[in-house]
Amino acid sequence: MKHILSTLTLVVLLMNIPTIFAAEKKQWWRDANGKTHNYASLATLAQREVCLKWRPVGWKIQFYPGKIGYLGMANGDEKKIYIWIRKEFSPKQVAGTIVHELAHAYDFLFMTTQLRTEWLKVRGLPTDTPWLPCGGCTDNKSGAGDFAESVSWTFQGKEGGFKSRLGLPPNAKQQAFIRKLLK
Q1: Domain count, the chain
Q2: Cβ atoms of 100 and 72 closer than 8 Å
């Protein structure tokens, strides 16, 4: 009898696996009119939301469907920015990721050791804070990640959130520093 109950329980669980996983699936973002948008149309809408005017010359931004563990990546060698759009993200959230990656491009191109140290001082962080994250690690605990998050917050506001683990969102003085750099 125990064997039959165990087998029956296993069959019921296996039959419900599609239902269990279906409940976890995210839906594509819907606009105010109820229209559903896929990653390509969200990319178009997000680009219109970007408030930062600076763009790196010769760089391309490429958009892809969501990727676990990634929102975006800037590759200085390839001069490309990769954005992975999660289904549940709004255009404003995607725009925040775009600006975060544009900030990394700015960093690659123009941030000297002196400017990086100045940023850390303006943020009230130790000047020996690692600027770059370890290979494959999130940048939320690095100077580069804090800078990129602060640039995104300065130009896009709170919609995309603030993911830096080094401090709070930038204050008015820190935002003025960012605006001066990226004018």
Answers
A1: 1
A2: yes
